[in-house]
Design brief:
Layout: H1 3-18, H2 23-37, H3 49-62, H4 65-84, H5 115-130, H6 135-151, H7 161-171, H8 177-196, H9 208-211, H10 227-242, H11 247-261, H12 273-279, H13 286-306, H14 317-322, H15 337-352, H16 357-371, H17 383-393, H18 399-418, H19 445-455, H20 460-472, H21 476-480, E1 487-488, E2 493-497, E3 503-507, H22 510-522, H23 541-554, H24 563-576, H25 581-588, H26 593-596, H27 604-615
Antiparallel strand pairs: 1-2, 2-3
Subcellular location: Cytoplasm
Protein name: Tyrosine recombinase XerC
GO molecular function: DNA binding
């Protein structure tokens, strides 16, 4: 985006925020304006009415009228703001004319290959109009029937159910389940009309196909290519029924599994992760794809529990995206190829230095956004250019965010100086905002007591997680990566992998040891992971945070509870009991004692005791 356009669009969005518009409204306006200005090199003041008309004409070819209108409305609002601020005199955005439908909207707009079909379809649409159907519904019926009868050239009275299924099967992988059902409904409605008029003796369609009512809704309703797959699918659906799942949930699960397995000749256990996710790239929303994959994941978890296969091929979407990709390489191309090469070199150096994947991904995402549309090379970017960019966002970003971003840029430019790509870094130290040192937010003893009381009613796994956090002060990522083999019950130690893949031993209490042993005794799976989900996969960091947060809410703590507060609590408690700072640093995995010294403050109770001792 042109730099001046970028500044004015941000100014306009900030004005929406100041006018107390909803966050969702501002986000929608932002997306539409980005869509319009993204590839435009000219400034907003130079864009003419003709430019906008060309853009609109292209939009109308691809998008619905309603979508075009809302895009124009956002653009019009932006230019009205520019007029108000006196950046321009007149707005180049014209009032968009609504499409005027043909007066005879119930008549087919295209000529069908078969004249008999053309006559009867027009008669059907006229009947729909006379029965009071609204314009939108009739146009929808007309569009679908046009498409169907252009493809199926037979006379309507000789069309069979097989012809209809074959035509819809060609598009089934591209359409959502709703679209498929809509087409079946329209075709059935048309043939129902023909039957009433005695143009045909029997309808070529079965009513149950669309209504979806069946006595045994937990059984597969469509032919499945592999009979063994069909048997296991029916077994899974019956299991859902016996477990008390609702009829709607079972029917939706059944439809998805039918769609996935219908044409697959291979046994379900031979289907790979790649095949599942490539099938998931349908022409539907990301939310719908995630829902489809979740139903397939549930089926495969059932198969693993039954012993039909050792491991489920369905992994989570984020894990699939990460597979086979070098996370230290920019995923999106930059405008300037030179920038891309040097940034990739910098990210590779971070990997060589053994920095964590999360850190490298953060740098990768930020540098990709910062240099995305910059045509100039990184060596030619001046301090003034970077400062201008910084000023644009200083009202939107928190001081800590600004400091983090500047730190990332500074690290990149320091690398460039060390590699002799440039003589001096353009980043100035005085730009870094001062961040007041925050005191670690630990749990007071009454709060710890509340948490311990709440986990008494939790399942044994969640109790073990909280006890391990309190006893070791581990980071959430360290607990997430633990395997059963990492636990030494005899010496009450755990081998954890910390930041920078540094391995250390941490100690835990006898109480924690007993709870861990009880938890592992309840496990029936053969997985090596210490903490697992119901689907017998490794418990993720997000799930651990969610469990801890829920426990904090149940305990009615004043501040939100997260795993790192247990770490602060562990360090503060050790310090209050007289533990040496070096020992605490070793337990926490701190390389620098200065980090550990942030805990060297008195607790609230100690301050109160000392005040009363000296002041009375």
């Amino acid at each position: 985006m042109n730099q001046k356009n970028h500044m004015v669009v941000n100014e306009y969005l900030l004005s929406l925020k100041n006018a107390n518009n909803k966050e969702s409204t501002i986000s929608v306006h932002r997306c539409r304006l980005q869509f319009f200005f993204k590839c435009r090199k000219e400034e907003f003041t130079e864009i003419t009415r003709e430019d906008i008309q060309k853009w609109l004409k292209k939009l109308q070819e691809d998008l619905k009228d309603r979508t075009v209108q809302v895009n124009v409305a956002s653009l019009r609002a932006f230019y009205n703001f520019c007029m108000k601020m006196e950046y321009i005199e007149t707005s180049p955005v014209m009032e968009i004319k609504k499409r005027i439908y043909n007066k005879e909207y119930w008549v087919l707009m295209k000529t069908l290959p078969n004249e008999e079909n053309q006559t009867v379809v027009n008669e059907y649409l006229k009947d729909m109009k006379d029965s009071g159907k609204n314009v939108g519904s009739i146009i929808s019926l007309r569009t679908k029937l046009q498409r169907f009868f252009i493809a199926v050239k037979k006379p309507y009275f000789s069309i069979t159910a097989q012809d209809i299924d074959q035509w819809i099967d060609k598009h089934r992988d591209k359409w959502s389940t709703t679209t498929v059902h809509n087409y079946y409904y329209v075709v059935r409605s048309f043939f129902s009309f023909c039957e009433e008029k005695d143009y045909i003796e029997t309808m070529p369609t079965k009513k149950t196909r669309w209504v979806g009512k069946t006595e045994k809704y937990w059984e597969i309703q469509q032919p499945i290519a592999n009979l063994e797959n069909r048997e296991v699918l029916n077994e899974f659906l019956l299991y859902l029924k016996e477990e008390g799942y609702t009829k709607k949930t079972i029917e939706v699960t059944r439809s998805t599994l039918q769609l996935f397995f219908r044409k697959r000749l291979e046994r379900f256990s031979f289907i790979t992760t790649e095949e599942i996710y490539l099938w998931g790239n349908l022409n539907v929303s990301r939310k719908t794809i995630s829902r489809y994959i979740s139903y397939i994941r549930s089926f495969y978890r059932f198969c693993v529990r039954k012993g039909y296969m050792e491991k489920s091929p369905v992994i989570y979407h984020w894990a699939w995206k990460a597979t086979g990709k070098n996370y230290w390489v920019l995923s999106k191309p930059l405008v300037n190829v030179r920038n891309q090469e040097v940034i990739n070199e910098f990210l590779l150096s971070m990997k060589v230095y053994n920095l964590s994947e999360g850190t490298i991904r953060s740098y990768c995402n930020f540098l990709s956004r910062f240099f995305h549309e910059k045509e100039e090379s990184f060596e030619t970017l001046t301090s003034d250019c970077i400062l201008t960019w910084l000023i644009q966002y200083q009202n939107e970003w928190k001081a800590r965010t600004i400091r983090n971003y500047l730190s990332m840029l500074s690290s990149f430019y320091r690398f460039c100086v060390e590699e002799e790509y440039m003589e001096k870094s353009p980043i100035k130290m005085q730009w870094f905002p001062r961040i007041p040192k925050s005191i670690p937010k630990y749990l007071e003893k009454p709060e710890v007591a509340k948490v311990l009381q709440v986990i008494e009613s939790e399942n044994i796994r969640n109790r073990a997680i909280v006890e391990l956090f309190l006893a070791t002060g581990c980071r959430v990522g360290e607990v997430h990566q633990l395997d059963k083999a990492h636990i030494d019950f005899e010496n009450r130690t755990a081998t954890v992998t910390g930041k920078g893949k540094k391995i250390r031993k941490v100690h835990f209490t006898e109480k924690c040891s007993l709870i861990l042993e009880r938890y592992l005794a309840t496990r029936k799976d053969q997985q090596p992971y210490l903490f697992v989900t119901q689907g017998e996969t490794r418990l993720g960091t997000a799930s651990i945070r969610k469990i801890v947060g829920r426990i904090g809410r149940t305990a009615k703590l004043i501040r939100p509870l997260h795993p790192h507060r247990f770490r602060h609590t562990f360090a503060t408690e050790l310090l209050s009991k007289g533990a040496n700072l070096s020992f605490i640093a070793d337990e926490l995995g701190h390389k620098n004692l200065k980090v550990t010294q942030t805990y060297a403050t008195y607790t609230k109770q100690e301050i109160l005791t000392m005040y009363r001792k000296y002041m009375g």
